[in-house]
């Protein structure tokens, strides 16, 4: 399927590894130029840029802490120096910390919500004016937003808030921009490793219809489809990509 992404310009947060890095690769394969941010993993950012360039597309990388609005605003200024406008914004930056409920400190609570929820708001607020009319925003939540999880309640709470942020910004930015959410189940990424290690060994076989966890590329392809003009009638939606977890 032609996703009509040739020469589109996408900005992805958190693209030095995991789902964000996979999304950068898939967007490049579909003909888009990729602008992306990373927090601390400079080597991962370099690899992401190399994979985009290997597919014949432009890659621009920026260091950014999404939880700091002044840093986000600074990056927006740098992006504007490099390109006149963007078409798509994808929010993959995330932080998952496995901590029992009784051990979560106020500082850890603020840090997890700062990246996963407040950071998403700061990025949307700063970048939306730079998106061309008819563009798209995709947020990345989690199945945890629907089910809750006992071992990182702050992460689940933030992702639940992100789903509502998606719906609210879809209303606020319509009809100029579309805003949708992809909510993956457990995905085989560096961040997902902590979750899988906290679960029973037979979890995928007994809880998921497909009896395995997702690859980053599978989630990325869903993100790219939702962001593309082919999904032009979709906004305010949350797409679950969880291997049939809720149907087991």
Describe the overall structure.
This protein has 248 residues and is α/β, with parallel strands linked by helices. It has one domain (9-187, 216-239): Rossmann fold. Helices cover 45% and strands 17% of the residues. The chain contains 9 helices and 7 strands, in the order βαβαβαβαβααβαααβ. The chain has helices at residues 18-29, 42-54, 69-82, 106-127, 144-147, 153-173, 190-197, 203-207, 216-227; strands at 9-13, 33-38, 59-63, 86-91, 131-140, 178-184, 238-241. The two termini are 31 Å apart. The relative contact order is 0.15.
> What is the terminal-to-terminal distance?
31 Å
Main sheet record: 7 strands, parallel
SSE series: EHEHEHEHEHHEHHHE
User: What name does CATH use for the topology?
Assistant: Rossmann fold
**Helix amount, in percent?**
40-55%
Low-confidence stretches: none
Global shape: globular
Tally of DSSP β-strands? 7
CATH class type: Alpha Beta
Report strand order across the widest sheet.
3-2-1-4-5-6-7
How big a fraction of the residues is strand?
Answer: 15-25%
Give the overall pLDDT as a whole number. 93
Q: How many domains, as an integer? A: 1
């Amino acid at each position: 399927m032609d996703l009509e992404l040739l020469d589109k310009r996408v900005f992805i947060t958190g693209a030095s590894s995991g789902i964000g890095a996979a999304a950068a690769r898939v967007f490049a394969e579909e003909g888009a130029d990729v602008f992306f941010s990373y927090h601390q993993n400079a080597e991962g950012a370099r690899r992401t840029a190399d994979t985009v360039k290997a597919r014949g597309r432009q890659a621009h990388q920026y260091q950014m802490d999404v939880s700091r609005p002044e840093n986000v605003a600074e990056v927006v200024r740098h992006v504007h120096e490099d390109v006149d406008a963007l078409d798509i914004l994808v929010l993959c930056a995330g932080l998952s910390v496995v901590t029992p409920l009784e051990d979560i400190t106020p500082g850890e609570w603020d840090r997890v919500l700062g990246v996963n929820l407040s950071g998403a708001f700061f990025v949307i607020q700063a970048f939306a004016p730079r998106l061309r009319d008819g563009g798209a925003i995709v947020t990345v939540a989690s199945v945890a937003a629907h089910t809750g999880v006992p071992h990182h309640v702050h992460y689940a709470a933030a992702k639940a808030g992100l789903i509502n942020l998606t719906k609210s910004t879809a209303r606020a930015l319509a009809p100029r921009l579309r805003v949708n959410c992809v909510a993956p189940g457990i995905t085989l990424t560096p961040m997902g490793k902590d979750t899988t290690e906290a679960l029973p060994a037979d979890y995928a076989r007994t809880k998921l219809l497909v009896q395995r966890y997702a690859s980053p590329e599978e989630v990325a392809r869903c993100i790219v489809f939702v962001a593309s003009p082919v999904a032009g009638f979709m906004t305010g939606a949350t797409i679950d990509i969880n291997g049939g977890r809720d149907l087991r």
